[in-house]
Amino acid sequence: MHLRKRVLVTGGAGFLGSHLCERLLARGDHVICLDNYFTGTRDNIVHLLANPYFEVVRHDITFPIYLEVDQIYNLACPASPVHYQRDPVQTTKVSVHGAINVLGLAKRLRIPVFQASTSEVYGDPSVHPQPEEYWGNVNPIGVRSCYDEGKRCAETLFFDYRRQHNLQIKVARIFNTYGPRMHPNDGRVVSNFIVQALRGEPITIYGDGSQTRSFCYVSDLIDGFVRLMESPPEITGPVNLGNPVEFSIRELAEIILAEIGGPSRIVARPLPSDDPRQRKPNIERARESLGWQPKVGLAEGLRATIDYFDQALRRPGELVAT
Ligand code: NAD
Ligand code: UDP
Ligand code: UDP
């Protein structure tokens, strides 16, 4: 039988956080969802509120918090370029001060703490696909730096708390993930293309569309989170979690257009600065140490995501323009 744990999920009202809360509640945990609703929304968690083992705390993780829990998943941080560039100073603060506070909490309670790091720590990679040993190619002063360097510094803090205080840390480097409850207006490629196609609007490819990404379906990713958290203490990560099947952005646009149909045509838009050319995880470490690999292919995952946006677009007042 699974022993009920009290689990803190920071950023729990966001896209990934809400799926994680759902998964932990489903296995019988007591979940404390902490969020300041910067990019998250109560809509993502409203279906969980009736569960007596679900608690919500409105709090900004850049400030200290005192709670009694058994595990922490630290997901609080805006994740899409549009959102994290809106207030870049705050983005770095969330990553760095947020990490310090969850690490301080984990240190006081002597409990395991999970960090949602990112493939962005590899920057515009010169090694392909990216293994965890690769140190990355990151611009420290560009428009993406607040996120990339914030997350890199958070990793540094996690490993120093381990070395200095012998903390149990679990660092996941997450690659592009998609699925229901993505923000319709956060500018990420999967949500943009689906919403554009459903509305019959032009599909906006930035640059020539030859840049690549690898897209992981949300249920696979959450499975990886839980496996990492439950793994033996010596497994600290960093561990890449993502789907290693790589697509060009043009291919993605064509797949989504073919699935949805309608009058949309592909149009070119300028490539944002520092946009990585290619990205694909090497997931050998996750396979070996966690027995994890993604199960959901792009076609299947896109169908579920398209259904979600299709429903959401029909609700009055939902989904402001992209
Ligand atoms: P999201 O924006 O949906 O979720 C982030 C959540 O954090 C939101 O609910 C937001 O309101 C909350 N938040 C932001 N600042 C906060 C603060 N100061 N205090 C408390 N809460 C705060 O994004 P997501 O896609 O669910 O990403 C979750 C985590 O995973 C992030 O740390 C992100 O960097 C990481 N990640 C996501 C992806 C991806 O493809 N989705 C890829 C790599 C890493
Ligand atoms: N902290 C927190 N909750 C706790 C314990 C600590 O938010 O339960 C914060 C605390 O405010 C501190 C940070 O975490 O700023 C780091 O804690 P640590 O004990 O490592 O550092 P110190 O308090 O010695 O500066
Ligand atoms: N992109 C695009 N059209 C869009 C949104 C994004 O061509 O409407 C491109 C973007 O330039 C990048 C890729 O798709 O090359 C993935 O972008 P996203 O913001 O989803 O994630 P990230 O760049 O952080 O991997």
UniProtKB/TrEMBL annotation:
CDD domains: UGD_SDR_e
Molecular functions per Gene Ontology: UDP-glucuronate decarboxylase activity
Positions of the NAD-dependent epimerase/dehydratase domain: 7-240
Keywords: Decarboxylase, Lyase, NAD
SUPFAM superfamilies: NAD(P)-binding Rossmann-fold domains (SSF51735)
Gene3D superfamilies cross-referenced by the UniProt entry: NAD(P)-binding Rossmann-like Domain (3.40.50.720)
Reported cofactor(s): NAD(+)
Domain of life assignment: Bacteria
Biased composition (Basic and acidic residues): 272-286
InterPro entries: Epimerase_deHydtase (IPR001509), NAD(P)-bd_dom_sf (IPR036291), UXS-like (IPR044516)
Protein known as: UDP-glucuronic acid decarboxylase family protein
Enzyme nomenclature, EC number: 4.1.1.35
Region ranges (Disordered): 267-286
Pfam families (UniProt xref): Epimerase
